[in-house]
C-alpha cells in the first residue's frame, strides 16, 4: 500500500466525518480497523470485520455469475433516513453511514477519492478535493469540481477558494481574464 493513498484516505475521513448528517466513517484493511471517525474502538472493529466479509462475499457472488468486480455496495436501511456505502480503495475497505439527503455529495466525494481526482487551488495551494462548496443559489452542498449545481442547475463553474478567496475553475486552476470579465459583467447585470 502506498503512502499517498493513506494520505488521501486520511484527508477523506477528516473532511467527510465533519459533515452534518454523517454517522461514521470507517476504514479497514484485511478486516481490521485502520482509521475511523464517529465510532468507538469496539464499534470500529466490528464494522471493519463485517464490511470486509460483506464485500468479500459480494465479490465472490459477482465472480460466480460473471458480473465482474463490484465497485461498491450501498445498503438502504429500513428507517429510510440512513444509508451505508461500502467500497474498496487500494488495499482498504471504506464504510460510510450517512443521512440519505447527502447521497449525491457522498457519491461525488467517493468518486474524487477512488478516481484519484485532485483539486488544488492554483493561487494558494489549498487542497479542496474533499471540501464542500455551498451553491450560492439554493445552498446545496456540492464538491468543488462541479460545473453546475446538481440540485438547481445554477452555473457554479467559477468559485472562490475558501482559503484565499480568489476565483478558481472546477479543477482549481486560475480562470483567464476574459472568463473573469464575463463573470463581473454577469454579476453587475444580475443585481
Ligand atoms: Zn443550487
Ligand atoms: Zn486558494
From TrEMBL:
<protein>
    <recommendedName>
        <fullName>DZANK-type domain-containing protein</fullName>
    </recommendedName>
</protein>
Amino acid at each position: 500500500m502506498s503512502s499517498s493513498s493513506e494520505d488521501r484516505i486520511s484527508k477523506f475521513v477528516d473532511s467527510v466525518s465533519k459533515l452534518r448528517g454523517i454517522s461514521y466513517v470507517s476504514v479497514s484493511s484485511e478486516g481490521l480497523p485502520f482509521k475511523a471517525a464517529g465510532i468507538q474502538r469496539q464499534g470500529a472493529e466490528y464494522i471493519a470485520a463485517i464490511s470486509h466479509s460483506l464485500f468479500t462475499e459480494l465479490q465472490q457472488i459477482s465472480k460466480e455469475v460473471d458480473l465482474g468486480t463490484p465497485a461498491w455496495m450501498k445498503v438502504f436501511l429500513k428507517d429510510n433516513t440512513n444509508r451505508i456505502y461500502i467500497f474498496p480503495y487500494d488495499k482498504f475497505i471504506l464504510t460510510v453511514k450517512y443521512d440519505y439527503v447527502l447521497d449525491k455529495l457522498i457519491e461525488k466525494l467517493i468518486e474524487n477519492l477512488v478516481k484519484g481526482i485532485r483539486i488544488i487551488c492554483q493561487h494558494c495551494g489549498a487542497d479542496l478535493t474533499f471540501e464542500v462548496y455551498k451553491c450560492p443559489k439554493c445552498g446545496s452542498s456540492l464538491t468543488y469540481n462541479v460545473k453546475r449545481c446538481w440540485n438547481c442547475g445554477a452555473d457554479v463553474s467559477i468559485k472562490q477558494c475558501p482559503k484565499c478567496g480568489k476565483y478558481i475553475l472546477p479543477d482549481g486552476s486560475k480562470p483567464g481574464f476574459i472568463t473573469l470579465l464575463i463573470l463581473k459583467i454577469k454579476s453587475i447585470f444580475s443585481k
